[in-house]
């Protein structure tokens, strides 16, 4: 009987993790699983490459040559650089600070490099196209031509910055959803202007195709110059709005906030527990609250125009549970006094900002 019971316990211990798995532990293994999957894929690609056809050993490689009339774009590192920059941007999102800025600049420069290559490719196809050998006599003669545009019936849309500008405007608008209404309006304006420009370009493309139906020869529209004035204006507005949000352009007649440097959070004169928010961060990582009795928290938001609040949850900052308190969300520079309900001693609580989930802290109940 003891042997049977031991065997049954052994079987239960084996199938237990499958019936009721530890989800937190499994979630922590997801990055390792993704890394193994990516490494396996590259290993498979390398294996297929090694087995792909016979290799010429001891013979100089022959330079590839495109067929007559066919243009082959040159090799480019731009796709690899953009992928590396995007990966660096995702990883730096967890590090923050200067790492995030460097990764973002890396991605922008990689996109600009790819855009320049696309413009060069368009010039090569539309202006200085590869020389094409065309049979002038079926028996023994050829004629060397350098066409000044694409072949008849082939339409090449000119390169355009508008898709990138539309994406940039949408990104600013979504960024404003977490920062403030000013950025939402600026992003909406950028998106609308880019979409209008894209619509105008689409009209030019349509008229070119309609003309080709009438004449029998399709001519690609000339590429438009980049809207440098609009880009400069939107960049200036972004800097001005961001500076206003950060309080850089505050009038000298207005008295400064109690914490202009971000290093001091002025406490309440009556002894009420004070928590401040500045530069999208709480002033303290931990707050102490007496157990078994309601209490007050004075919350000061020093981020001008940026909304914050304090919400309290059961559990830790990494795995919060039931919401205990949800304070009013308001933009700075301003303050509110929250009435916190009684909390139980010995339990674990966390406080955070519902607008910015990276702003977290621990509540100690004594």
Task: Provide a descriptive summary of the structure in words.
By secondary structure, the protein is α+β, with helices and mostly antiparallel strands. Among the domains are: 76-135 and 143-148; 158-249, no CATH class; 273-365, Cupredoxins -  blue copper proteins (Immunoglobulin-like, Sandwich). The chain has eight helices and twelve strands. Helix 6 (162-179) runs antiparallel to helix 7 (181-215). The radius of gyration is 31 Å and the shape is flat. The two termini are 50 Å apart.
C-alpha end-to-end distance = 50 Å
Strand content: 15-25%
Gross morphology = flat
Find the count of extended strands (DSSP E, 2+ residues). Answer: 12
What is the name of the CATH superfamily of the domain at 273-365?
Cupredoxins -  blue copper proteins
| Uncertain parts | 127-147, 250-263
CATH architecture of the domain at 273-365: Sandwich
CATH topology of the domain at 273-365: the name is Immunoglobulin-like
The share of residues in helices is: 40-55%
Would you tell me the overall average pLDDT? 74
- Main structural class: alpha+beta
Order of helices and strands: HHHHHEEHHHEEEEEEEEEE
Radius of gyration equals 31 Å
The main pleated sheet reads as:
5 strands, mixed
What is the overall number of helices?
Answer: 8
CATH class category name of the domain at 273-365? Mainly Beta
Q: How is the largest sheet built, in terms of strand order? A: 4-12-11-7-8
